[in-house]
Amino acid sequence: MEPEPILTTATSADVACNMCGFTTCEHLFTKKDFRLVRCTNCGLAYIANPPDAEGIKAIYTAKSSYHDQLLDSGSDEYQRQRKTAHQHMQMLRHFRPDPSGLLLLDIGCSSGIFLGEARSFGMVCMGAELSPETAAFARKHFSLPVHQGDWRDAGFADASFDIITLFDVIEHLPDPLGELKALHRLLKPGGLLLLSTPDIDGLFPRASYPLAKKLDYWPHPEPPHHLFQFSQKTLAAMVEKAGFTVEGARHTSIDLSYNFGTLDSWKQSPKMLAYAALFAPVAVLGQAIGKGDWLYLGATKP
Q1: Contact of 118 with 112, CB cutoff 8 Å
Q2: Is 178 within a domain?
Q3: What domain range is 133 assigned to?
Q4: CATH code of the domain covering residue 102
Q5: Considering the domain boundaries, does residue 110 fall inside one?
Q6: Are strands 34-39 and 45-47 parallel, antiparallel or unpaired?
Q7: 103-106 contact pairs (CB < 8 A, 24+)
Q8: Span 128-187, pLDDT tens digits
Q9: What is the tally of structural domains in the chain?
Q10: How much is the pTM?
Q11: Which Pfam families match (predicted)?
């Protein structure tokens, strides 16, 4: 049985629910002094005391080690992201089987690995990325047109894109509902919005939550980078509130080493090793039964 969440009301320093504006929430978990709560009205889970705008901006640079390994095409992380890019493309083709010739905008494109994959399928690719270092890498290494900074400043025309992707981006945004509403205008009618995000309702997050407070260890929430924790239900509700029609969802699992560490990290933390032994099989099972902890959701602009 899950521990009973603590009912609380947002203080003047807390943010209200981004989806419904409600201020009453259930406390779920505290990590790095950031409080993860769940809205009692719509069910959206979010960080009640997020960093301010300057604090968030400072996270997304190589100086803070954000995606710094993706600036080296020989690094293990770069190779892992190549596999992830292939998975992203498989998911995209589930919704659009023949993407050749379609104009794609990837929001939060990082070092451009996915855009390089998409281009190999004949897509016309553009990106937007906050990090100056990874945006520059994408432009130089892949010769991609990538806008560095807020995509709103790029001058993209209304109804100009066939597909907009946000892979593991929506959970980072201070105002995800506002972002989705703004992106709505960039899609052509019938265009595809494709998102991925960790799924708080996946089998592994749900099964591990009862022990989270006892162990003071729950890898699923990742503040301050992740400001929101979505489920299929809450992500679909937000996407529809922004004016899209949900096409469908698919589930997979986050890379096991990302959640549970490696041999080197286990040597440094026996607690992590015990946790991995207990819950890694649960994560594998979750993917097998369609309850993985990584969610893809596709939606169409009517």
Answers
A1: no
A2: yes
A3: 53-300
A4: 3.40.50.150
A5: yes
A6: antiparallel
A7: 103/160, 103/161, 103/162, 103/163, 104/161, 104/162, 104/163, 104/164, 104/165, 105/151, 105/156, 105/161, 105/163, 105/164, 105/165, 105/186, 106/164, 106/165, 106/166, 106/167
A8: 999 999 999 999 999 999 999 999 999 999 999 999 999 999 999 999 999 999 999 999
A9: 1
A10: 0.91
A11: Methyltransf_23 (PF13489)
